[in-house]
Amino acid sequence: MTTSFRRLKNIALGTALGTACLALVGSAPALAEDIIVGLITKTDINPFFVKMKEGAQAKAKELGVELRSYAGKVDGDNESQVAAIESLIAAGAKGILITPSDTKAIVPTVEKAREAGILVIALDTPLEPITAADATLATDNFKAGELIGQWANKTLGDGAKDAHIAFLDLATSQPTVDYLRDQGFMKGFGIDIKNPTKIGDEDDPRISGHDVTAGNEEGGRKAMENLLQKDPTINVVYTINEPAAAGAYEALKAVGREKDVIIVSVDGGCPGVKNVQEGVIGATSQQYPLIMASMGVEAVVNYVKTQKKPENSPGLDFFNTGVELITDKPVDGVPSLSVKEGLDKCWG
């Protein structure tokens, strides 16, 4: 073989190898550092969503992906969430994790993201329909409500049949998380549910009324004041979350009723569990937002690598991230954890 022929053969071989390498690069999955994951929460003030963001940030750092976080100005701010999704589509995000403020109005924008090839995972609050997202990682919100309803009923004993109950809900739009917890409480307490996806159509005389809180302390205080004007004899208060419960307690304290009213709630954050410890809240259903968010980031990375979406829990149309009742006043027939156990687990 002549030197010139050997040189030509080496050049040809090098060209072929180079072409093959380029083909491999073109077909390889995105490297971790090329993956953008969006997190869109209802607000960035509520401790629940603060902890969710912490979980997403920690997992993104661990996996070497870029996290871009967005939040509504207030709970119910659909416009900001729509704008966030649009920004993430433009940025070429691979996945979006969202706790939707308006579970119906956001769906068309979610569909645009999915059409662009983005994996969309709902956290905590299912979309309507739930299949509008590729997956949902959430507390069993109906079960969370049911647990506090059962606890309140058993705590009152014979007095449950003559209860005067105030419902401090989330929003007039009645997103999924709102009616699931509300209706779950009713089932647990023994109130007949009419339309399971609608708040306020019940006819049980024990219901003193419903009001909305926007899921914050000031909203809880105002809603409690409104309902006390309608029925000053309220003795059970259901609240959508612990900030609303704290506001309700302040309103009750202002009229000297804080010691003779049972308040129950959902969240299980460290401040809320401390309020259980101090007697502000009788019992709360504990959620695990840090787990939801970290699992969400991990699911996006796994999807980019394998094209596999998260699977639902057996018998459910979402992946259940767990719920536990927290109280220092346990009742027979309703499993619960102590405040000490709740503090050990609060949003860790």
Lay out the secondary structure.
Layout: H1 3-27, E1 36-41, H2 47-63, E2 66-71, H3 78-91, E3 95-98, H4 107-115, E4 119-123, E5 135-138, H5 141-156, E6 165-169, H6 176-189, E7 207-212, H7 217-230, E8 236-239, H8 242-254, E9 262-267, H9 270-277, E10 283-286, H10 289-306, E11 319-320, E12 324-326, H11 339-345
Parallel strand pairs: 1-2, 1-3, 3-4, 4-5, 5-11, 6-7, 6-8, 8-9, 9-10
Antiparallel strand pairs: 10-12
Rg is 25 Å
Q: How much strand content do the residues show?
A: 15-25%
The CA-CA distance between the termini, in Å, is 70 Å
Order of helices and strands: HEHEHEHEEHEHEHEHEHEHEEH
Task: Give the overall pLDDT as a whole number.
Answer: 91
Count of extended strands = 12
- The CATH superfamily label of the largest domain reads Response regulator
Number of helices: 11
Outline type: elongated
Second rung of CATH, namely the architecture of the largest domain: 3-Layer(aba) Sandwich
Q: Which fold name fills CATH's third level, the topology of the largest domain?
A: Rossmann fold
Major sheet: arrangement of strands: 2-1-3-4-5-11
CATH classification class of the largest domain: Alpha Beta
* Unreliable sequence segments: 1-29
Tell me the number of structural domains.
Answer: 2
Derived structural class: alpha/beta
Top keywords for this entry?
2 domains; 348 residues; disordered N terminus; alpha/beta; elongated; 45% helix; 11 helices; Rossmann fold; six-stranded parallel β-sheet
Put the structure in a nutshell.
By secondary structure, this protein is of the alpha/beta class. It has helices at residues 3-27, 47-63, 78-91, 107-115, 141-156, 176-189, 217-230, 242-254, 270-277, 289-306, 339-345; strands at 36-41, 66-71, 95-98, 119-123, 135-138, 165-169, 207-212, 236-239, 262-267, 283-286, 319-320, 324-326.
